[in-house]
């Protein structure tokens, strides 16, 4: 461990947020734990070199229940989610900020564990954490730990935007859908599926870069990471942007049988569930084979599949072809299908 050892009975206290000595010591411990991924100089702002005339900026806040799960935690989710939002726009992620809102009584050992996960995810993604903030609030004023991030990336190619999607594009998924939500639900509710259905949380910028470098410019017209709202939300977003019909075949969806079993038991639909390591790509038909080959050669894309296509239509619509051959419209959810996980 890079940071200082945290004893099991050590907790965050309100004085860690006063700006005095305990605050300084907490920030120093955070910086030590983040290690070589943190390049802040403890100034009020970071001064950064950006080797391009265009940048991409994203911001997000992370609330995860449970904070820790089988193969990740809120720290990993925060870094991966921010990196992926930059990468799907075609940007190369470079820098992140890390803001922590910590409830009094949160174990210091748990905070260090979260920071280590954030550090490891940042290392894998090749990004630096350049600035951050800590706020300590009283008991009951936060649910243990909230994280806010801002990400900055450089735009070295034409950006990928949803309005570029057009009829004839094939719809490709990079991997299984629903695993992240099923895993968290299983951990939270004690369902017993968590060992067989792991969260897909991962930084996808390496996979995305491999795809964009491996095919001609324009072969991938747009992409999105399939997070909150699931595949259904992504397809409706792109149908509206393109003014087209997005049609997919249910039997073509890449799904883990155990995830299907868990979803059926819970009475929920995998297409509405959040993921943290799945891409939806819109690809020119004559390049879809090349894109699939690149995706499947990467550890995070080995279950990639073509699920449907974009069609001309008088109004935006998402349709699904069922196993019996019937085609129905897929309605957008009004709210959440299940209690919020992240």
UniProtKB/TrEMBL annotation:
CDD domains: HypE. Residues 43-155 form the PurM-like N-terminal domain. Residues 166-318 form the PurM-like C-terminal domain. Gene3D superfamilies: PurM-like C-terminal domain, PurM-like, N-terminal domain. GO terms for molecular function: coenzyme F420 hydrogenase activity. Keywords: Oxidoreductase. Its EC number is 1.12.98.1. GO terms for biological process: protein maturation. Belongs to the HypE family. This is Hydrogenase. It comes from Sorangium cellulosum (Polyangium cellulosum).
